[in-house]
Structure formats: C-alpha cells, structure tokens
Amino acid sequence: MGRMNLKRITWDYDNPPEDELWRARRLAEFFPFVAADLTREDKELILKYLDQIKLPDERKQIIRMVCGGEKDTD
To answer: Following DSSP, what letter does each residue of the chain receive, concatenated?
Structure first.
C-alpha cells in the first residue's frame, strides 16, 4: 500500500490559500501526523506563527523541538 499524502489532506483544497498563517495553522493542527513530510520551509513557517496558533502548550513544545525552534521563555 502506498504512502498517504497527508499534506494534500491537510490543505483541504486543490490550491490552498496563500495566507501563511493559515498554512502554518493547518500544519500545526495536524502535527505530528505531517512531521515526517515537512520541508525546512514548512518548519520555518510553523515556527514563525506558532505563538499565534491556539494549541496546547505541550504540543507547541513538541513542535518547537521537532522543528528546531527554541522555546520562548517570556
């Protein structure tokens, strides 16, 4: 059986919106299911908007660890 295209499922659109925050939110919401398929650009995008995305702090911490971002200590 072939590998599922999780990014296609995540986008919900044939041509996803260009809005970066929307893209970052969708990737973060489906994390960790999309983690293996994330590009460096995807990871940077998630980290750029992570503080604006409503997720449990524990999930944000895991996302930062996987995506290579430092935890905000403020």
So the answer is: -PPP-HHHHHH-SSS----HHHHHHHHHHTTTTTGGG--HHHHHHHHHHGGGS---HHHHHHHHHHHTPPPP--
